[in-house]
């Protein structure tokens, strides 16, 4: 069971992925937990000479090759350099290492704004709706849709798209080929196409803090998960079909 917390003041969470050993494609090894620092940091807004990831999980996931170790790193806002579809930073603290579902659960602390609707129709586009009842839709190739508010809906219809819903009663739908639908908040639901996958979590509040109790991740066609059907996770950590 993982106990999560909000980031420290003027800090944000950055999502990244690597091989199971924590080694990046350039040979740098990230620790499983704790402080991490780039040995050759340069603040120029170009790739390289820094640690890299997606600020609040937002960016182009196609470069990841869906590797096995997902990490959440807490980074000072003043250290973050925006590179467009990703960011880089000199140092931070690794708070989580594990599955995509577990890492997405930390994204529930993304800043919440007023009710919003957002859409991105171009390739590699990102749509984010952070308010209650918001809707985010990404229709292009490798698009990412994120809905973080209460009862938000995220939809990614392009191939290799990712949809994440982190708020309570949120729904994530990824209908394109190889898409991932991830629902992280309480009572969230997720669905995906035949070649896709879903991620679900079940959590409880313990002493006022959100505690992650169960994580479930599966490709469609495995573990009883069927294409186009919507699932939630029960208290036993089992996926249950939701009738729409």
What does this structure look like?
With 244 residues, the chain is mostly beta strands. It has two domains: 2-98, no CATH class; 112-242, no CATH class. It is 3% helix and 43% strand. The chain has one helix at 100-106, and strands at 2-3, 11-18, 34-37, 51-55, 69-76, 81-82, 87-89, 91-98, 117-120, 126-129, 135-138, 144-147, 153-156, 162-165, 171-174, 180-183, 189-192, 197-206, 209-219, 230-233, 239-242. The strands form four sheets. It has a seven-stranded mixed beta sheet with strand order 1-19-18-16-14-12-10, covered by helices on one side. A seven-stranded antiparallel beta sheet has the order 3-8-5-2-4-7-6, with helices on one face. It has a five-stranded parallel beta sheet with strand order 9-11-13-15-17, with no helix packed on it. The longest helix is centred in the middle third of the chain and has 7 residues, at 100-106. The two termini are 30 Å apart. The relative contact order is 0.13. Residues 112-135 have low confidence and may be disordered.
Set down the secondary structure blueprint.
Elements: E1 2-3, E2 11-18, E3 34-37, E4 51-55, E5 69-76, E6 81-82, E7 87-89, E8 91-98, H1 100-106, E9 117-120, E10 126-129, E11 135-138, E12 144-147, E13 153-156, E14 162-165, E15 171-174, E16 180-183, E17 189-192, E18 197-206, E19 209-219, E20 230-233, E21 239-242
Parallel strand pairs: 9-11, 10-12, 11-13, 12-14, 13-15, 14-16, 15-17, 16-18
Antiparallel strand pairs: 1-19, 2-4, 2-5, 3-8, 4-7, 5-8, 6-7, 18-19, 20-21
